[in-house]
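Hi, here's the filled form for the chain we discussed.

Project: internal
Contact: R.S.
Residues: 178
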Amino acid sequence: MVQDRNQKRTKPNILVTGTPGTGKTTMSSALAEASQLRHINIGELVKEKNLHDGWDEQFECHVINEDLVCDELEDMMEEGGTIVDYHGCDFFPERWFDCVVVLQTDNTVLYDRLSKRGYSGLKLSNNIESEIFGVLLEEAKESYPEDIVMALRSDNIEDISRNVATLTEWVMQWQPRS
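And the returned structure, exactly as it came back:
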């Protein structure tokens, strides 16, 4: 069944994940432009379509309703040609993605980025710890076939440019599974 779905798509779906502050949205936007794929920022989608169950005061963010998000995305994902950008990945169906990219950033760079965003206290320390322990890479490897998961550095603009070039080339060479 997975192969049948992938054969219907003429363009691949890519998941870009990683700790907040690793450059997911920046890279996804640039990749969408370079590859002519559609970019969906899950955080923005959740706010725009009210796909959440309220506000988490402690972490200062919406509590997303994973079922509503998946229902909202289902048709687009079957169609293909979508880049999904989110800091979590284990709730998306495995069949949706042809490539899962985990962006990783040096902790000092990440600390500075998150501090500039106004992260502090528990929110800041949890995200730094998540990056130190490679939580998102492990989550991706546990949720998707390991051969479609790739970890990419995202410390600076040169890394982002290199990642966009690498992934654009991958998109151009992508063929549906047979």
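Let me know if anything looks off before we file it.
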